[in-house]
Amino acid sequence: MARIGVDVGGTFTDLVLEIEGENMGQHRVYVHKVPSTPWDQSEGVLRGILEICRIGGIYPSDVRLIVHGTTVATNITIEHNGAEVGMLTTRGFRDILHIGRHKRPENFSLQFDVPWQSRPLVKRRNRIAIGERVMPPHGEVAQPLDEDEVRAAAELFKARGIRSVIVCFLYSFLNDAHERRAKEIIQEVLPDAYVSCSSEVANVIREYERFSTTAMNAYVGPKTSLYLKNLEQKLVDAGIKAHLRIMQSNGGVSTVEKCSKEAVTILMSGLAGGVMGGRWAGALSEEKNVITVDIGGTSADFSTIPDGKVKIMNPRDTYVGAYPILAPMIDLATMGAGGGSIAYIDEGGAFRVGPRSAGADPGPACYGKGGTEPTVTDAQVVLGRLDPDHFLGGGIEIDAELAREAIRTKVAEPLGLTVEEAALGIIRILNSNMSLAIRANSVAKGYDPRKFALAPFGGAGPLNGVALAEAVSAREVIVPPAPGITAAIGLLVTDMQYEFMRSVPTLLKDVGQPALDKLNRVIDELTALCRERLDDDGVPADNQHFVRIAECRYHGQGFELRADIPEGRIDGERLAAIKASFQAQHKRDYGWAFDDVDVEIVTIRIIGIARTRPLAWPELEDAAGSSPDGALMYERPTIFDDRKTYATPRYDRKKLKAGHELSGPAIIVQHDSTTLVPPGYVAKVSGKGNIHINAQRV
Amino acid sequence: MNPSNTKVDPITLQVISGALHTIAEEMGHVLYRMSFSSIIRESQDIGAGLFDLHFNTLTESEGSPLHIGSIPAYLRGIDACLQGGTWNEGDVVLHNHPYYGASHSPDLCIVVPVFWRGELVAFAANTAHHVDIGAATPGLIIDIPDVFAEGMLFAGIKLYEGGKRNEGLWQYIGHNSRTAKQTKDDIDAQIASALLGAQRMQELLDTYGKETVFGAADQLMDYTEAMMRSRIAEIPDGEYFAEGYLDDDGANRDKRLPIKVCVRVTGDSVEVDLTGSADQVPTGFNVPFEGSTKPACYCAFRAMLTDAALMEVKLPPNEGSFRPIKVTAPKGSIFNPIYPAAAEARFTQCNRMIDLIIKALAPVMPQRVTAGNSATLSFAAYSGIKAEGDYWVFLEVNEGAYGGRPHSDGPDSIDNLMANTRNNPIEDLGMHLPMVCDRYELRDDVMPGAGQFRGGIGVVKTQRLLTDGAITHESERHLDVPWGAFGGTDGAAGRVEIFLPDGTKQDTYAKFSNLRVPAGGGMAYYAPCGGGYGDPLDRPARLVLEDVLDGFCTRAHAFDAYGVVVTEALELDESATMARRTLIRLERRLPPLAEQGAAVVETV
């Protein structure tokens, strides 16, 4: 069979094709890039698929599986062009979405913007108050649902042409009967509408976050759903009978149908592939502790993967733009830093790099497209680390003189530095900013980077890998086989994954049999929901796996941490194990655990997983004692971070074989990425395709 | 200032700047994530940072603005009363004395000395607002006679000496707070945060050495100071005045209290002179000078002059922003009380003062100000006794609204000026305390100030007690209305309503102490609405219609204040609007009819 991973980025759509099995010839893997088509991502996706099939010498109809990483939903939030949404909410609480958490985005500002007020997901005119009341702490109904009001609101939405409707009632996580009934009524009036209840989208305590998530789902849902179904149809029309699967923010893939209904789960689809690809690269070398560093033109993303397990962000931290979104997302840190980041002197005389970016247009000064501000890429060119004649495989012409000129006038002269010193400074400040973000995602969360390998990828990652590893004290650097396309590879190495959650606030201190029964019942119900989804996807029972999580806090705290639920029905012993797991996590995250404070389970989360065989990367030919000179391209002067200039050989990565070792200074060039091996470091080519870079043993 | 005179290169400078900032953020993060009381974990009423041996702020986390800039005063206070007189490795100091620099007594400060290679080099410290420190009434206090009614006062006390906890003190705290368990666990969270800050600072020193780290810190302070000074220099030299009145002191209801602000700009320095403001009051409604009055003034200038929304990058948050600002308040005034006056309920006076600084400067910097803000806050303490006999105490911060601004409407229902907390989730409250929220939405009983950019709309929040309990409320501005600016109209005053189980309702004062409320009764808070900015007739009719559609504005208000005619079908009547607006403009040019000698005809 053949399968394809296709990841859509801002500039390029990246693809990877794996061919194997009967009648398909030898196992082989192809990678490819086509320009993205931002007006309709599916055009680029389709073109890329057809092209990579041709490159691989197969018919499009041979493709069985396509896994897609898409920024469609994300872009709707950035461009603010989602659906007009209607909302029903409990009377007295019409403005929960307008008030938010009543905290300003800035401490010291008078002219600040409040995005949830200036660009609301649901306009106030479409937020209709409904008579109904569910009471804490057990969910009893204090006021029945006023069905006439619901019907009148639905008619109003109908008259206004609104076809995306949400139902958000207080305490619906305790009792969802009113939300469900209201949904039925709306569907009677508006049979074709996209309707979602807060208890379906995020069945957890905290009204603002739950409503915001539901509103976001309704805002991005209709367009996302249209895009996915349109893509599905285009594939069919092109004779492709493959299953189409979508990467979710949590690093698992899911079906078009599910992602259409719960579009809020794919808001970070585009970023998740990179993390999964980084984990895969580590696994190629049997390295389970990996820090992934994905650096592109305008942004850099970092994630810490301990023991091969991708971490999920605390739900209290999952924001998309300014909106809290209670959908599981991979724990990653994103910052506006990359090859396009602009270096400048601010009005107080400080030397800054980013977050402003030259983007793709005009791009770095050296592109000669009119950019005059110096960027990180310009600094790399000045230092001789990026060769004008091999930039993007020679695909883009660059002019080193323009890079020098921009750095000289904008940075070097004002600071009284030489152009080379200024260029080194740009790289150093960039790396310092990035290493702080990596530390915040690792050290600050209780992980010791000295036990981790750093996997740099994305176009600009491998240039900075060693410097970043040094800055955060990572053990070694592992450069994946195709750094520029790692996010697409990530799509073919991830599992099918469904998640369900429900708030079941339970104090562990005085838990009785009824509370235990309730916990077990909720676990059973959520597990059954996962199983149903996996069954629908045709996943055989023996490949259905369930991860069970209790989100806990010390009684009285406001932030939960994840604890593992041991196998079997929860009893006293397993409760103790949950508590111990929570205590350990608390100690890891905060450096402290309380012995004498009661623990509370807040939310139960069940993740149903169908394991997938990860992409197999073809093994490299063995060097068999040969010298790497066969891969030597030429030698050029290059400035490294020690400020010295070295005559530095360039090697063609395609020609490097398993076991080859290169002593720094050296530069390894491939189509869309350049790997820097500084003096004092050795790069070793692994048979599995990775390059390992370590400090030279003295 | 710079002990080493090490000139750090511009690149290393940025590296250390980022590192310092990250340490402060990590300290703040651990503190609010770990803590128990909602005032810390949800409202994030905290501050955290690193300080040098001269008590300069090297860096601070983004906590609550009033905490920022207050810790140096604590450190100076501790210096004057430190137990044993010297700092030792392993010490943890607990401090909250308002006459030794504390911001106010519930803001407990935890200080850990940072030793590096055996030498004291810096301090890691944080402050956090505690729910109850055993004051005269649960949670909050207003009508009290002196500082000793504020509860436990700690002055330079070592909670840990050389790494060993003072068990006697720890036990003492356990018996002197209505929420002792919470208080002790929150203090633990503070200690964890300060220890982490100290450890990170040591790591930074290990990497770069003392000369470089402190050299860089000094340069960063100079940089921030220079930025602030260059902004002050843009303001024309001169004296700028504004004044307003506080409702009362929480006990003497007929006595309004003036706040007089003179902003004196001289070159690149500025002085805020509060001379002429009310004398200190006999209740807890006074403002500690060092720990609150001064940081509040710093906050005003940071928000106006180095407005984060108008800056490409944020300034390093350090001492440099405080240096160009001098604050003067006569001893014995409400902004500089004399011991032993109580001085716990100090927030609203500070916020009103900031609002008046903005008003004073509005004529010379119209692009950086707002119209009148709510400039208060609603701080409510709900309490009662649990079935098993323990106290429960819940502190709630309610938000205000902003005045209109030169390019945008005033934000609605949001923490104002010096306040910047998070609200406690309604559902979280309902699950854990015998209280239920009945209403939380925008006010519809009044309209905000009209203007080219309208004022923000205040919130209404109704909380009902499910068991017998008590409420203390600290708020302001039931009388002084937020002003309109540059032709905008005034906003609306605040209001508090007490309701009883039988349905009776009664408006009451903004401040009251330990009011007993039976089960089923409670309080509704109505926040003031901001004033408008610019002439309402300059607001595009289209936008007024949008506001009508969204219920931010009534049809009548659109007609009266904006001259915009919206039909019953909620459509814009453009020709009627043009006529109406022309008429209003015409009327404005004419003196009132009475002055023209004409008979005044009453029209309905």
UniProtKB/TrEMBL annotation, chain A:
What the entry lists under Pfam families is as follows: Hydant_A_C, Hydant_A_N, Hydantoinase_A
Q: Which residues form the Acetophenone carboxylase-like C-terminal domain?
A: 515-684
The segment(s) forming the Hydantoinase A/oxoprolinase domain are 210-498
Q: Which domain of life is it from?
A: Bacteria
SUPFAM superfamilies from the entry?
Actin-like ATPase domain
Q: Which residues form the Hydantoinase/oxoprolinase N-terminal domain?
A: 3-189
What InterPro entries does the entry give?
ACX-like_C, ATPase_NBD, Hydant_A_N, Hydantoinase_A, Oxoprolinase-like
Q: What is this protein called?
A: Hydantoinase/oxoprolinase family protein
Q: What organism does the UniProt record list as the source?
A: Aromatoleum toluvorans
The lineage, from the top, is:
Bacteria, Pseudomonadati, Pseudomonadota, Betaproteobacteria, Rhodocyclales
